[in-house]
Structures are given as C-alpha cells and as structure tokens.
Amino acid sequence: MQQMKMQGCEVEAIGINYKIHTNKTEHPFKIFSKSPQLDNANGQEIEEEEEARVEKSCSGVRHVLKNVSFQARPWEILAIVGPSGAGKSSLLEILAGKHSPQKGSVLLNQKPVDKSQFRKLSGYVTQKDTLFPLLTVEETMMFSAKLRLKLPQQQLCSRVKSLIQELGLDHVAGTRIGDDRVRGISGGERRRVSIGVEVIHDPKVLILDEPTSGLDSTSALQIIDMLKVMAETRGRTIILSIHQPGFRIVKLFNSLLLLANGSVLHHGTAELLSLNLRLMGLELPLHVNLVEFAIDSIDIIQQQQQQQCQVETEPPRRLLGTMQQKKGGDDGQQQQSGESKSD
Ligand SMILES: Nc1ncnc2c1ncn2[C@@H]1O[C@H](COP(=O)(O)OP(=O)(O)O)[C@@H](O)[C@H]1O
Ligand SMILES: [Mg+2]
Fold first, then answer.
1. N or C: which end of the chain has fewer CB within 10 A?
2. CA 227-231-237 angle, 5° bins
3. Cα–Cα nearest to 324, from 340, 336, 312, 341
4. How high is the pLDDT of residue 342?
5. In angstroms, what is the span from residue 107 Cα to ligand 1's centroid?
6. Which ligand number lies closest to the CA of residue 65?
7. Which residues are CB-neighbours of 154 under 8 A, at least 6 positions away?
8. Spacing, Cα 87 to ligand 2 middle (Å)
9. What domains can be seen in the chain, in order of their start residue?
10. Keywords for this entry (predicted)?
C-alpha cells in the first residue's frame, strides 16, 4: 500500500454492466387506462395488449450501465459527463464500492482490489453535503480526522489546520456549517468542507459526485481549480461527475467520459471529442460549450456509432454471401466479381 501511495493509483474499469431490479407494483392509474367502450373481441385484444404494456413498464430489470470501460490516471482529472439519468452516479457508486456490478471489474494499478482496501485508499464525496450543521468547520474536520486517523492529538490538530489552509477555509474555520434553518457558511464553502472530510487521510483516489451542482460559476470554477491543484501536487487520481461544466472548467479536465443511457459515447480528451464530432459532420458552433454541444448531439452520435457498427459487421456478411454464391456455381462467382468491380 505504501508503494501505491508513492506511485499513485491508476483506476481502470473493464466492461461494467449494472442492472437493477425494479419492484413489481400495481400501476397506480391502471383503472383509469381501461377504455369503457371496448366490448368486442378486437377491443379485448387491444385492452390485453395495453395491460401487458403497463405491466412491463412497472416491473422488470433496468440496464443502468452497459459495458462501461475507462481509465483514470494519477495526477489527472477524469470528468464523467452526460445528461441526467445517464448513469453517472451509479458508476461512481460502483467505483466507491457501494454497489457491485453483475459483470466487469475495477482494477487499481492493473490489480483487482477488495472494497475495504479501496476505502482506505480513496475518498468519496456524495452529491449532497452530509455535515453536522451546528459544528464549526474546524470541529467537523477534527471529527473526521479522529475517525480516520490514529495519530496523537497534536498531530491531528496540525493536520486539520494545514488542510483548512489548503482548502482556503481559514476565514471560516470557527464558523458553524449551518443549514436551511441555521445560517452558516456559504454553499461553496460547505462543498469544500465535504471534500476536506474525505481527504483528511490523504487518499490516492478521490471520487466526487457533481461537486459543483448548485454553485454559481465562480464557486464551481474555484472548486475544480482546487481539485486540479490536489491532483497535480499530490498525484491524486480524481474522478468526478459534472453537469454542464463551463468552458474554463472543461479546460481543467485531462479526459472526459461521455455517458448516455448507460453507454460510453466518448472517452478521451476534449480535443479528441471535438475532432470526433467534426468527423461526424457536427461542427461546434461559435460560442457554444463543447460538452453542452456533445450532450445535445447525443442522438446523432448514437445513430452514427450504430451505422459504423453495421458497416464494421458487413464485410463478414458479404464474405458469407460470396461463399454461398461460390457454392452455387460459376455464375455466382462471376456475379460477385462483377459486383466487386463496381465497388
Ligand atoms: N436504486 C434505483 N432504483 C431505481 N432506479 C434507479 C436506481 N438507481 C439508478 N436508477 C436509475 O438508473 C438510471 C441512472 O441513474 P443515475 O446513476 O442516478 O444517473 P445520473 O447520475 O447520470 O443522473 C436512472 O434512470 C435512474 O432512475
Ligand atoms: Mg447523479
């Protein structure tokens, strides 16, 4: 583990498939969906079909992540982007060891890792801040430090002080966190405290679910800036999900993972995403954010990728056709050679 701390952790996900079972529940509007005029046999058939459709929509298995693979390197930030419901939080929960996928694996420096070991090496910041509103910033950090570290009191104090400084929270160290009822620190500061609680043990991997949601653009940029510094000075591997990142924020990401409907549409740098979109005939309009444009173009990207897959699977079919024609006799062969000439 000491060696991992020195060299940093490369996180690799391979072919993650995650399905959830939704409960079989009676459709709440089932009685209203019945049509009273349907008396004849044809009407009954339609009614049965409708019932089956409603049943299907209320029960069964939901494929949340489909064959998701990616790599996140130390000293870098990987941003998971995509529309709401794409599977970003589910993927992060799997990485953080909260859920187990049915298929696929997560490797750390090319080795499988068990959940308890990974928890010691990582920090996971959830989308919602779960802090005690009546504690001050310093007390909150101290509480986390005592839980996570086995160090003498003096060392704990100095660790907390230096982290508060690193997070830019000196000016509010003695202020209580607060919530909707009790006024406390600002939303951006609260988010910094949540991050601080999860990095007190100096984890090599930091996972954050939408660390900028609900913040104004300046506070959002400050948070990502701070994470960038953490990655670059401590060799941390940072994996975060983000919704609508601004242009200046996108520039700070080393790579992007574009998810849609649980599938990966892009994994690589922002420049590569821009190039791929251009190759698909999707020219980025002036003054439009690249990630926003990519999310708006998801339907077209999916269509193009499906067409590409079909083209890739076509040659074997053609070959099969050729073989069948060959079996059929010389006529077929001539026809095939004619075809290839016209190609
Ligand atoms: N426990 C669950 N019960 C029902 N649906 C779920 C559950 N977990 C995830 N989902 C569904 O999986 C999809 C992905 O969810 P999520 O990972 O939260 O997406 P995102 O974070 O990208 O908005 C959504 O359609 C969501 O409704
Ligand atoms: Mg989410």
1. C
2. 105
3. 336
4. 36
5. 24
6. 1
7. none
8. 7
9. 11-18+63-130+204-309 (3.40.50.300)
10. ATP-binding, Membrane, Nucleotide-binding, Transmembrane, Transmembrane helix, Transport
Ligand 1 cavity residues, CB under 6 Å: 20, 22, 64, 82, 84-90
Show the tokens assigned to 20: 């959830």
User: Crossing angle of helices 298-328/330-342, nearest 10°?
Assistant: 150
Q: What share of the chain is helix, strand, coil (3-state, %, to 5)?
A: 50, 20, 30
Region class of 56: left (phi > 0), else alpha (psi between -120 and 50), else beta: alpha
Q: Which atom of ligand 1 is nearest to the CA of 91?
A: 17
What pTM was estimated for this model as a whole?
A: 0.82
Which range has the worst mean pLDDT, 17-21, 51-55, 255-259?
A: 51-55
Are 116 and 108 contacting, i.e. CB atoms less than 8 angstroms apart?
no
Q: How many CA atoms lie within 13 A of 260 on its CB side?
A: 17
What's the CA-to-centroid distance between 137 and ligand 1, angstroms? 32
Q: Please state, in angstroms and rounded to a whole number, the distance separating the CA atoms of residues 99 and 93.
A: 6
DSSP 94-108: HHTTSS--SEEEEEE
> What b/e string do you get for 246-272 counting C-beta neighbours within 10 Å, with b at 16 or more?
beebbeebbbbbbbbbbbbbbbeebee
The protein residue with its alpha carbon nearest to ligand 1, atom 6, reads 20
- Neighbouring CB atoms inside 10 A of 212's CB total 25
- 136-151 pLDDT, tens digit each: 999 999 999 999 999 9
**What SS3 class is residue 67?**
strand
Q: What is the pLDDT of residues 165-218, one digit of tens each?
A: 999 999 999 999 999 888 999 999 999 999 999 999 999 999 999 999 999 999
Across-strand partners of 61? 21
